[in-house]
């Protein structure tokens, strides 16, 4: 490999709606722990923890998730090369273009490997060896994509057809044809054909090779990505892309925008213990079973078969059922067939039209200053538990539609209320009428815990007017 290390680029912009209600737009599936003590994004980071093979990672994420990403890195003790913030969701095409430009600036002939943040790959050594085996083809200015041999007809994946063989020893082929998510009959044909592989969404190439193909097949994204970087702002440890130019890029996957048109794509068979974790039925298939079921939390069953049942807090009882998925969280309940063909995505889209908050927000919401849990929600009032980390503070803000009452149950808090400051400790409280300028700051060494009771005509997270914020949020 000519002693050239690879720049890993981790894409963390997905929403993970097929794992609702545990996965939400504010807390998507890459932040979930699935049969592991690590989250999916942490597993991805650990997979590339090899100083002889990889440079420090570059991460691209939604602006909303930036402090979640930073915390995931901090827990592992990993210092990234860069965290790039997308101002709006634009799919993988623009993200790959941005990363390729940045790597080329760092190293003219630098190699990149594009990695989704939500994959399950059990064999780290085989994963790294597959990349090494592809290095020679990469040097020949090819884009290597990695394909998984299908074990069932699956309509949730894109497929890539193997063309003529390039490297028989390392099982590398010409990528003959890209096929988007097929019908079930087509997927059955592909399984019998043996020439079609699942598209893993992992790509390995020189940054300049990828840029050359983008400049040919998606010039609009190419041009606007350059400008989005040129007009970007450094914000704490993050690079905030220009919204003006990034919004002008094409919102397409890199596969559709570029790779399926390119003549420079190779396909490597990828046998690395890869598993789909894109749906509850796929997690059922991946998990260890007891009596044919996967149970987690306070769950009791009687005569239940082939089912996945999770409960985060309440007692769940299931009787005389087969092939069922039940996911119970603090604020939502999902019941569906244990079948990968069930279209949960369409149901979530319909729900979002009438109850957008449930789709957007997890009961536990992370913020740069700490987190909050929604304990109770009724028509005109809501109860939350706020945790403010030591030496952190919320923004100086006001609300137009709601009033708040705070009771400190732990720690030492400095409360700003209009032009006055108050020091509150355990069992002390304060009232914040609507339109009052306010802030809470943790001035102690331990977390401050506050029970917040909101009341008003509208109880929306969007009802915040920030006047000052140390985290530079809008």
What would you note in describing this structure?
The chain folds into 3 domains: 270 residues, Spore Coat Polysaccharide Biosynthesis Protein SpsA, Chain A, CATH 3.90.550; 58 residues, no CATH class; 106 residues, Jelly Rolls, CATH 2.60.120.10. By secondary structure, the protein is an alpha/beta fold. The two termini are 45 Å apart. A hairpin with a 2-residue loop joins strand 10 and strand 11. It has 13 helices and 30 strands. Helix 3 packs across helix 8 and helix 7 packs across helix 8. The mean pLDDT is 92. A 6-stranded antiparallel sheet has the order 20-21-22-29-24-27, with no helix packed on it.
List keywords for this structure.
six-stranded antiparallel sheet, 474 residues, 13 helices, globular, 3 domains, Spore Coat Polysaccharide Biosynthesis Protein SpsA, Chain A, alpha/beta, five-stranded mixed β-barrel, single chain, 30 strands, 24% helix, Jelly Rolls
Quaternary state of the chains: single chain
Top-tier CATH class of the largest domain: Alpha Beta
Low-confidence parts: none
| Named CATH topology of the largest domain | Spore Coat Polysaccharide Biosynthesis Protein SpsA, Chain A
Give the strand order, joined by hyphens, for the main sheet.
20-21-22-29-24-27
Helix content: 10-25%
**How many beta-strand runs?**
30
Shape: globular
End-to-end Cα distance, whole Å, is 45 Å
Count of DSSP H/I helices: 13
Integer average pLDDT = 92
Strand content: 35-45%
